[in-house]
């Protein structure tokens, strides 16, 4: 069984090298997947709809690709909210509130980069500590208090407390508490971060960076 300390600092506790922009296009209802081998996702641009007749046309009838002015307002914000700060992100069109053009075959198109980040995992009820060097302050990219893996934070835990691996609870509490500070600590608890999966043993997974403070 995999053992983890209460706070796991991934990627050798270092800032990771950012990479150039990548573009992903996903047709129809297939899974739109963004990923970073190093660093975390930062969405630059994203759209859901259709901008030209050629992309994702294939053997589709011409009439379902003729509308090239189809674009869902707010789609970019939705993808940013879902993916920014994660190492891997998978979404489908079901994430969007509505269909911008019913009779058009659509696609999701996202341009993103992988930016430097520190990745932390902290088991429920343990303390998480974020730290930056002098002259730098914390900037949290993403935080989620739930369970998406059966092995993380599983040592000596009952299987029934880890069976729900679709327990996701993105939270802004860490950013609200820690952004702009040089050091910050808090407990990974349901009382502090909320609980969308009662009876499940959860963990806090977050990514952050140390940015140069104003005037430093």
From TrEMBL:
Per the record's keyword annotation, is Iron included, yes or no?
no
Q: Provide the GO MF annotations for this entry.
A: carbohydrate binding
The domain of life for this entry's organism is: Eukaryota
Q: Does the keyword Repeat apply?
A: yes
User: Mind telling me which InterPro entries this protein's record contains?
Assistant: Lectin_gal-bd_dom, Lectin_gal-bd_sf
Q: Which UniProt keywords apply?
A: Lectin, Repeat, Signal
Q: Which residues form the signal peptide?
A: 1-21
Record domain SUEL-type lectin: where: 26-115, 122-211
Transmembrane portions of the chain: none
Name under which the protein is recorded: L-rhamnose-binding lectin SML
